[in-house]
Write a structure and sequence with these properties.
The protein is of the alpha/beta class. It contains 10 helices and 10 strands. The protein has one domain: Alpha-Beta Barrel (TIM Barrel). Helix 1 packs across helix 2, helix 3 packs across helix 4 and helix 7 crosses helix 8. The N terminus is likely disordered.
Length: about 300
């Protein structure tokens, strides 16, 4: 199945989210290559820096059924993610790990290769399943060589797939002028208050799949009255409703939590059927940015 043609809204809502294939569109031929399966739902580990906090959260998430873990070198917890994965009773090939190249490290070909190897060593789990450029390099002139290094990390087997994060429509279009293969994923903030239909369309147009971080707008909107009404109708928590909206919008979704109860609660959001309240969600969009937004930068 080609990534760009995936329509999660047409899938059954009664089961857990399952996986989707991601791959890389060849710029010259338009063909998809290097396809791998990635879960549609996972755990984000941003701001988990206390000793053992991340490892405990990841271990519990895996026990609950999570099979996707999203970290980054900037988070300072790659090693704990790796420890939790290695010590799990779930086999390595069942767990999909994402990490990211820090923006301050996206400065040259050699630096990208060095930092990818560093993340690889920090995790200690073999090939990185998905490696992302955390944000568009601030130096416009180095962007081609940064992406060339990402492509080479893929071809040498350090990573199984590559992508970007916080890239806007113009960033994705510019990549066509220097990339051999396009990203498999664009990880951006997506939630009911920041629905980004145009950026999602641009992401799918290059053969990539959107990945939603901050599906709860970093907690800023957890007490939103419209969301509370939706949750009441569905008989769930507001957080569960927002997470399921992200999943059903077609985005891989990675809510962050180190709280054991919340990790379990978020996991069970996958079984919700929100088809009866889609109009409520459509009315919530207000272009609300809860964190940084490099998508609008040059």
């Amino acid at each position: 199945m080609a990534v760009a043609m995936f329509d999660y809204m047409s899938q059954p809502h009664s089961a857990m989210s399952g996986t989707i294939k991601i791959g890389h569109k060849d710029v010259k031929t338009g063909e998809m290559s290097s396809q791998v399966d990635i879960p549609m739902f996972g755990l984000g580990v941003y701001l988990m820096k206390g000793p053992g906090e991340c490892k405990k959260a990841v271990s519990h998430a895996i026990e609950c059924g999570y099979r996707l873990i999203d970290t980054a070198m900037a988070y300072g917890n790659e090693s704990e993610v790796g420890e939790a994965v290695r010590e799990s009773e779930v086999t390595r090939d069942e767990i999909f790990v994402v990490t990211k190249l820090r923006r301050p490290h996206a400065t040259s070909y050699d630096e990208v290769i060095r930092r990818c190897q560093e993340s690889h060593d920090n995790l200690g789990i073999g090939a990185i399943d998905l490696y992302l450029v955390h944000a568009p390099p601030e130096d416009l002139e180095v962007r081609p060589q940064v992406w060339k290094a990402m492509e080479d990390c893929l071809e040498t087997g350090l990573v199984r797939s590559i992508g970007v994060s916080n890239y806007g429509h113009h960033h994705l279009q510019e990549m066509k002028s220097y990339a051999r293969i396009m990203p498999a994923v664009n990880q951006i903030e997506i939630n009911p208050w920041l629905q980004r239909p145009n950026l999602i369309s641009a992401t799918k147009e290059i053969g990539a799949i959107p990945m939603a971080y901050s599906p709860l707008a970093r907690g800023h909107k957890v007490n939103d009255q419209d969301l509370a009404e939706v949750a009441k109708i569905l008989g769930c928590t507001p957080a569960q409703a927002a997470i399921k909206w992200c999943i059903d919008s077609g985005s891989i979704t990675i809510p962050k939590s180190s709280n054991s109860d919340r990790i379990e609660e978020n996991f069970h959001s996958q079984s919700l059927d929100i088809s009866s309240v889609l109009e409520y969600f459509q009315s919530m969009n207000e272009n609300y940015i809860s964190g940084w937004d490099p998508t609008v930068e040059p």
